[in-house]
Amino acid sequence: MSRDPALTRRIIATLACVLLADFLLVGCVAFLLRPWLAPVATALPSGLGWLALVVPATAVVAWAQLRYTRREALSSVDATVVTDEEYPDLLAPVRRLATGADVAVPTVAVAETDVPNAFTVGTPRRATLVVSTGLLAALSADELDAVLAHELAHVKNRDAMVMTLATFLPALADDYSLLEDLGLSRSARRTVWLAAIVLLYVPSAAVIDAPLFGVRYTVTYVLLVAFVLLFGGAALGLLAMPVVSLAGRLSHDREFIADRAGATLSGSPASMAGALRTLGEDAPAASDRDARAVDGVKQLCFLPGGFGDEGGALESLPISVRTHPPIDDRLDALRSLTADSDR
After folding, report:
1. Partners of residue 166 on adjacent β-strands
2. Quick check: pTM over 0.85?
3. Between helices 5-32 and 34-42, what is the axis angle to 10°?
4. Cα angle for residues 314, 320, 325 (degrees, 5° grid)
5. Among candidates 269, 257, 272, which has minimal Cα distance to 140?
6. What is the C-alpha to C-alpha distance for residues 174 and 176, in angstroms, rounded to an integer?
7. Where's the Peptidase M48 domain (predicted)?
């Protein structure tokens, strides 16, 4: 199974946009926090300054995005990693198809829900393939092979990794504080914010021209903190917008490619079409679904409906483009593939 050149170009463009947005976000944060980060920047080698601080920080942010988004995606659908003893008829075809696709065998997790769907998150070296019990119950063995091959195509093309990265900034912009998603109660989150504000009070004397602990100093400090939070939130929203747009278009295009690659890998375009028809029977029609509501983990899925009532940090900003092509269009593309193979 080879990579599609057109999809590869779009993946590279989306990845570049995500990394640029990360870089600008880290730079913006460094700018806002420069009163407190100045001692660190001045200690760096001459000529590098802030760049030597922002570049490695951007790499750390990208790494953290992958780990955090993977964890949140699994948590949002309550998926549990499974073993051969629990699901031998699932893990065996995953291994067989992964070998055929020449990709590392992903971790497999199952979500206990009647909603039939699947998605993949992570990197080519550490991907996690999630399926629902509803999907396992709804499909025949050949149709399941086709869906699993479809998901492995996302790993092969590396669009699963890019989509994993791309869901983070919009989610962060929608939920400015990630403390809630770390399991902290409302009182605990307030305590964390209060502690941060108190700890930065004295170091702010480096930029506030007023007697420490005085009224003027305190008022200036409060205004400084308010400016950092408000400006930071606005910058985050602006940086998330192009990521949302490009990720939505990538999500749309990658489904056609994965359908075709999955049909080829499984050896049965008819099984892929059968899976789409079977699962599409219960899916809402495009005219009944608001395209702007297809977001978060839903844009990672085989079908756009998600896994039901999943929530959490991956319920991101509304996406202004449809992230999945209509099922009829996907079926038409598979019919074209079948016709070409019959010639």
Report:
1. none
2. no
3. 100
4. 85
5. 272
6. 6
7. 90-337
